[in-house]
Specification:
about 750 residues; alpha+beta; 6-stranded antiparallel β-sheet
Length: about 750
């Protein structure tokens, strides 16, 4: 608040008044200073408390991320322990499954299974000959505990990485204990999630074991030299509580750290922030209060010089009463109504302004607090939803795991699979059949109990089967309801077991019945299909109808996607006259290498499609550069090297092509790190990218180019061999050369 020019021209008229005013001014200065100190302490205390609570909430949010990571690991171990191949100790199945999981989850270091007899089945690079798992602490703890157990953080003897072992008892299908399933989880993924996130402007998060050892920290050097955390604070005293705040000096600056415990791994997450940043709002308020206090004092000094007794005493009294109100309740004090335009009015306006400023700052802090609370509630709601989703998945996983994980090659195999699942879900059923509606006839695909060969010979009209409702139908003596001619009805009677009751439903596509499933109870059975059976069948029908429709949609979608990709490749061949057939050749060679390496069906499919689209980024390169016969300039070569990045940016926008996009991005990387665009090396390069690098180079050498003719086979082979371990992955080269020797690759 500023004084106007008229108020600045105040003169003294009487020396006696000067003395009185000096005394009053001194008293007011002392009072205003004390009042400012009280207000400052009150506001600072509340602001600092809010700052500490906010910092602790940030630490809790990091804990929720860590818990989500640990929950995901537990779900994977729980799901894996229920696999039939694990329960039956199928070693071949185990090793293949362990390999699939290890390739999918990069934070799994080792996956292994210790049998009750002491046999050790593992997928790792560790030499486990003569190793008896029953002697290990994780095995003993898992045997004593029903649920999943977590070990403390320790350093892997072979890799030197920080790991935790997660283990669970496994029972056979007959509910007999057969051994312990365990995985070694590296903390690198969890650590990166922590140290990569900033806390404020200068703060960061880190994690320690309850023993005091650093697990994750932005300064990797502190971890490497095993920095003693007790140099900063007494860890035993701090860890006496599950969470809290503490202050300590780090790198010459005082910091506020909030901590929360993660009991499953005996660890603690801390978020560290400089006190100067944490209490920044408080410091700003302090400065404002001090500034306002100085302004008030200066204004009082000027005002007193211009006031006499007649106009001084009563206004001062009112000002004191107002100041007292502000002291008692600075945020709710009643404002003074200002009618005067003299110095006292200026003073009262200044006090009102100070009160309003404090109230405004307080309201701003309240807004910050409400925002933090809202964010907390969102995090809590997300966490609750995640837990609910996890529980729903656990309930559905037993019913859908075989369905979602099995490879069903065609519709008939799929429907036969459904029949076998349905008769297990409905225990009352003795027999069953599944059939298609084709050419207005009923085509039986599979049967349980009934004579399938005889059923297939029937010539029944589909109308006989479509008289039922679209839902689940329960029908007594179903054969008697058919109006087929006597001959066909007699053949149906002979092909079927005697039936007392039938429950059935049809599968629809656009209101057209495509197939049906019927379950039957034998004539001699005392059982019936009750309400529970209908409910189960309805639930089964809903799940299968959705899955059936989704499969048909995915088939159409895959055909559409395949057509689009082939069109793009053909456009590239028109754009680059020397690459006609090149992309398809690379796709076929890559697929053969992936098959010989015994990769999964998904990986083999990815190898083919990534090979097909690996060069689509060249569409963005001018045709005159692609087909240039002379040596490329540095700028032109630099432009050529951008085509993997352009292909990646194009493909990653489609969710189903993101994995292929990453493979294409790295197909020009070299085993020794001399490739592009990121100069990564060895196993940092995705395996399928390593495969495409060899296939791409081979086909390019064996094809005519603008700058040279195709190389002879022997010269091309020698080039591949000489660059083994340099440009190419040794393992991929060895497989490729064997395929060439066997004439499995078209020369």
């Amino acid at each position: 608040m500023k004084l106007n020019k008229k108020n600045r021209g105040i003169k003294l008229n009487d020396s006696l008044i000067l003395k009185v005013n000096i005394i009053i001014i001194i008293a007011l200065i002392l009072f205003i200073s004390v009042l400012a100190l009280l207000i400052n302490n009150l506001v600072a205390t509340k602001v600092n408390k809010l700052a500490q609570e906010r910092n602790l909430e940030i630490a809790r949010s990091f804990k929720e991320r860590a818990d989500s990571f640990l929950d995901q690991t537990e779900i994977i171990v729980q799901t894996l322990s229920n696999e039939s191949g694990i329960k039956n100790i199928d070693k071949k199945y185990m090793l293949k499954k362990f390999e699939e999981i290890d390739s999918e989850y990069d934070y799994f270091l080792n996956i292994y299974f210790g049998t009750k007899s002491g046999e050790f089945i593992s997928y790792s690079k560790v030499d486990d000959e003569g190793f008896d798992p029953r002697l290990r602490s994780w095995y003993k703890r898992a045997v004593k505990n029903e649920g999943i157990i977590w070990t403390k953080v320790y350093e892997d003897a072979f890799t030197g990485e920080k790991v935790i072992t997660v283990a669970k008892r496994v029972y056979s299908s007959a509910e007999k204990f057969i051994g312990v399933l365990a995985v070694d989880v590296t903390l690198e993924t969890l650590s990166n999630k922590l140290v990569s996130k900033k806390v404020g402007e200068k703060g960061f998060a880190y994690m320690i074991a309850k023993s005091g050892e650093l697990i994750a920290h932005p300064d990797q050097g502190l971890i490497n030299k095993k920095f003693d955390i007790n140099q900063l604070f007494n860890i035993e005293k701090v860890l006496a509580n599950k969470e809290g705040n503490l202050k300590y000096k780090y790198q010459g600056e005082m910091n506020l750290a909030s901590y929360v415990s993660i009991d499953r791994i005996d660890g603690v997450i801390l978020t560290q922030n400089p006190l100067s940043e944490v209490y920044d709002i408080s410091n700003q308020l302090n400065r404002k209060i001090i500034l306002l206090t100085l302004v008030v004092i200066i204004m009082l000094t000027l005002i007193v010089y211009l006031i006499n007794r007649q106009y001084l005493l009563i206004p001062i009294k009112k000002a004191v009463e107002f100041a007292d109100g502000v002291s008692n309740d600075p945020f709710n004090a009643r404002k003074i109504e200002i009618k005067r335009k003299d110095e006292i009015g200026v003073l009262l306006a200044a006090l009102n302004g100070m009160s309003e400023e404090i109230e405004a700052n307080y309201q701003q802090l309240e807004a910050y607090n409400e925002e933090i609370t809202a964010q907390n509630e969102e995090l809590e709601e997300a966490y609750i939803n995640a837990n609910k989703l996890a529980n729903d998945l656990k309930n559905l996983i037993e019913l859908l795991s075989n369905l979602s994980q099995s490879t069903i090659r065609n519709e008939e195999e799929f429907l036969s699979y459904l029949l076998n699942k349905a008769i297990k879900i409905i225990p009352e059923a003795d027999y069953g059949s599944v059939y298609l509606y084709q050419n207005k006839k009923v085509k039986f695909l599979d049967a349980i109990g009934h004579d399938l060969d005889s059923l297939k010979d029937l010539n029944l009209s589909e109308e006989e089967f479509k008289k039922r409702n679209k839902g689940v139908n329960v029908i007594r003596d179903i054969i008697s309801l058919y109006s087929a001619d006597d001959y066909e009805k007699e053949k149906l009677q002979e092909a079927s077991k005697p039936i007392k009751e039938t429950i059935s439903f049809d599968l629809y596509d656009n209101n057209e019945a495509l197939a049906g499933i019927s379950l039957d109870i034998g004539i001699d059975s005392n059982k019936n299909f009750d309400k529970k059976a209908e409910d189960l069948m309805n639930a089964f029908k809903s799940i299968i109808s959705s899955y059936y429709a989704m499969q048909k949609y995915n088939d159409l979608q895959d055909e559409f996607k395949r057509g689009i990709i082939f069109s793009i490749v053909k456009m590239l061949e028109i754009h680059d006259e020397y690459t006609t057939g090149h992309s398809e050749n690379v796709a076929k060679i890559s697929k053969k290498i992936a098959q010989r390496m015994d990769l999964s069906d998904i990986a083999i499919n990815q190898a083919y499609w990534a090979g097909l689209v690996h060069d689509i980024g060249k569409i963005l390169i001018p045709k005159e550069i692609l087909n240039k016969e002379e040596k490329l300039t540095d700028e032109e070569y630099k432009l050529i090297k951008e085509h993997p990045v352009w292909a990646y940016d194009t493909l990653k926008s489609c969710e189903k092509l993101r994995n292929i996009a990453e493979i294409v991005l790295y197909h020009h990387e070299a085993w020794d790190g001399g490739g592009y665009p990121e100069e990564i090396k060895k196993d940092q390069i995705p395996l399928i990218s390593q495969i495409i690098t060899v296939a791409d180079t081979w086909d390019a050498m064996r094809s005519n180019r603008s700058y040279r003719k195709a190389l002879d086979k022997e010269i091309a082979i020698q080039e591949i061999k000489e660059n083994r371990g340099k440009q190419f992955a040794p393992k991929v080269v060895d497989i490729f050369l064997k395929l060439l020797e066997e004439n499995k690759i078209d020369n």
